[in-house]
Design a protein that fits this description.
The chain is mainly beta. Helix content is 11%, strand content 43%. It has 1 helix and 7 strands, in the order βββββββα. Strands 1, 2, 3, 4, 5, 6 and 7 form a 7-stranded mixed sheet that branches. It is elongated and about 65 Å long.
Length: 124
């Protein structure tokens, strides 16, 4: 496979990236923090998932087929013989706010589990 293109742009608006790959052209999809989806609009695509030291996985997709790409996964797509495809990347998720009520409930739960201090008795 010849690697002619690489997806390294930051894409945050949810619109798909689109490519047309000719014969023997390949596209490298570097690992991303968010899950993505790949959709084949025309032609046929040979996808290879890199797995570090584990054996690579190969997938064949025809026009009208798609594949969910897990967050952190690295892929190479090659047209066979040519294809038009798009990749949709989920926008980054904002951090979830911490609910103040959570700390109150956890404190009550811990209070119920832990022994309470006993008042010292006074000997007369």
């Amino acid at each position: 496979m010849s690697h002619s293109s690489s997806m390294i742009e930051v894409h945050q608006n949810g619109a798909p990236f689109g490519w047309t790959l000719g014969p023997a052209q390949a596209l490298t999809l570097a690992a991303a923090a968010q899950p993505r989806g790949l959709w084949v609009h025309e032609g046929r695509v040979w996808l290879t998932r890199g797995r570090g030291s584990a054996p690579a996985e190969d997938f064949w997709l025809e026009a009208g087929q798609g594949l969910a790409l897990e967050a952190g996964s690295h892929w190479v797509a090659e047209a066979w013989p040519q294809a038009r495809l798009s990749v949709l990347e989920a926008p980054p998720q904002p951090p979830r706010p911490v609910r103040p009520g959570l700390f109150v409930r956890v404190g009550a739960w811990l209070g119920a589990l832990l022994p309470r201090p006993q008042a010292a008795s006074v000997c007369a």
